[in-house]
Automatic annotation (TrEMBL):
RCC repeats: 1-65, 141-192, 193-246, 291-328
The organism's taxonomic lineage, starting at the top: Eukaryota, Fungi, Dikarya, Ascomycota, Pezizomycotina
PROSITE patterns assigned: RCC1_2 (PS00626), RCC1_3 (PS50012)
Protein name, entry field: Alpha-tubulin suppressor protein Aats1
Protein's organism: Aspergillus tubingensis (strain CBS 134.48)
Cited Gene3D superfamilies: Regulator of chromosome condensation 1/beta-lactamase-inhibitor protein II (2.130.10.30)
Length: 384
């Protein structure tokens, strides 16, 4: 399952073995024998890429068998441990995707992460997310935390702002079925429907409790004010969308009613049942069951898809740009593309605004089966 990337790459977060931005999809590189065996297998049981999560300068790739790979800035261990001396990856950067294994040797997830823990390491995960400088890895009732966060982003206790020498762990009463992060806050949904969040809460992104404390250094429960059983969530920069029954069209936006981008009240047309909801920093994007994209929020750089995007099979929303999968060979983009994340053709301001730009795929690329988008980064998942 070859993965291609384009966009911002100043810390090697595209996994291309260098730190230069690229504007056309380029094949990612993986330092792992198991990945290469998987990629060359034609078996119907071959693991697939199930999620791509991106922080400000790092990227996480989750496979359906629970393996996670990371690339990008690693000065604080957010990619899974301190780099060994002489690794060849440069100054705290992982420029090829590397397998993430967290150390649990001390029994509570607080050990030093060196990226190779054998029997004492957690190797398989069910979900991942990333704030600007931190990584979150879900395993059952536990969320493992790597990296840095100056205002409660880590969720592991008041005043705890860095995990440079190890990994933190948050444990809940039920299995975590969904996790989502914005730039500075994270929300988890548990199997029983409870919702917890931590990090910045001043703008109401963590509900009334979060707004009261302003910074939640540890998880606070926020589902009491939602009104339905939660099944998932998505996080913008300063707001959160909690999702319920998709067939019933259930969702609620938590945030500030004074938001100038209209995130709280900007929806202009019926949504109905939907496949999923994603968020940019300042926008909400509903992929409806009929393939339409209903979106609202900030649009000064063309972040909201024009009507010409039409019905799409797949959707990926980044910080300020959007990708749509029209068919197995056609990927389109719109929004802020200054780093090449919307392809090689933008206007003088680096935008693809009011139109959709088709992304040129390299010769020999197989069927496109999925998309990903992060902080000025774009991803195309293919099948040989």
């Amino acid at each position: 399952m070859p993965l291609y990337a384009f966009g911002s790459n100043g810390s090697g977060q595209l996994g291309l073995s260098h730190t230069e931005d690229v504007s056309v999809p380029t094949k990612c590189l993986f330092d792992d024998e198991q990945y290469h065996r998987t990629a060359s297998s034609s078996s119907s049981n071959t693991p697939t890429i199930s999620r791509i999560a991106a922080g400000g300068n790092h990227t996480l790739v989750l496979f359906s068998d629970g393996r996670v790979y990371a690339a990008g800035c690693n000065e604080d261990g957010r990619c899974g441990g301190r780099l060994p001396s002489g690794s060849g990856d440069g100054d705290g950067e992982v420029v090829r995707f590397r397998r993430v294994v967290v150390n649990t040797s001390d029994g509570d997830g607080g050990g030093g992460g060196d990226g190779d823990m054998g029997k004492e390491g957690e190797e398989r995960f069910t979900d991942v997310s990333a704030t600007w400088e931190a990584t979150f890895l879900v395993a059952g009732r536990k969320v493992y935390v790597l990296g840095t966060g100056g205002r409660g982003e880590l969720g592991v206790g008041e005043g705890k702002t860095s995990l440079k020498e190890g990994v933190g762990c948050i444990e809940f009463e039920d299995k975590v079925i969904s996790i989502a992060s914005g730039m500075g806050h994270t929300v988890v949904v548990l199997e029983g429907g409870r919702v917890y969040g931590w990090g910045g809460g001043r703008k109401g992104q963590l509900g009334a409790k979060g707004k009261e404390v302003k910074v939640a250094w540890e998880p606070v429960r926020i589902d009491e004010e939602i009104g339905f059983r939660a099944t998932g969530a998505a996080c913008g920069r300063e707001f959160t969308v909690v999702v319920g029954d998709r067939e019933k069209g259930e969702f609620v936006v938590l945030g500030s009613s004074g938001d100038k981008w209209g995130v709280m009240s900007g929806v202009k047309e019926p949504v109905g049942c939907f496949q999923g909801i994603q968020t940019s920093w300042h926008g909400v994007y509903v992929h409806c069951s009929d393939g339409r994209v209903v979106s609202w929020g900030r649009d000064d750089r063309g972040q909201l898809p024009p009507r010409e995007m039409g019905v799409v099979k797949g959707l990926a929303v980044g910080s300020e740009h959007v990708l749509g999968l029209v068919d197995g060979r056609t990927v389109v983009a719109c929004g802020w593309g200054e780093h090449g994340n919307c392809g090689p053709k933008t206007d003088a301001q680096g935008n693809v605004k009011g139109v959709c730009c088709q992304i040129p795929l390299p010769d020999g690329v197989g069927e496109v089966v999925g998309l990903g988008a992060g902080c000025a980064t774009s991803w195309v998942i293919t099948r040989d």
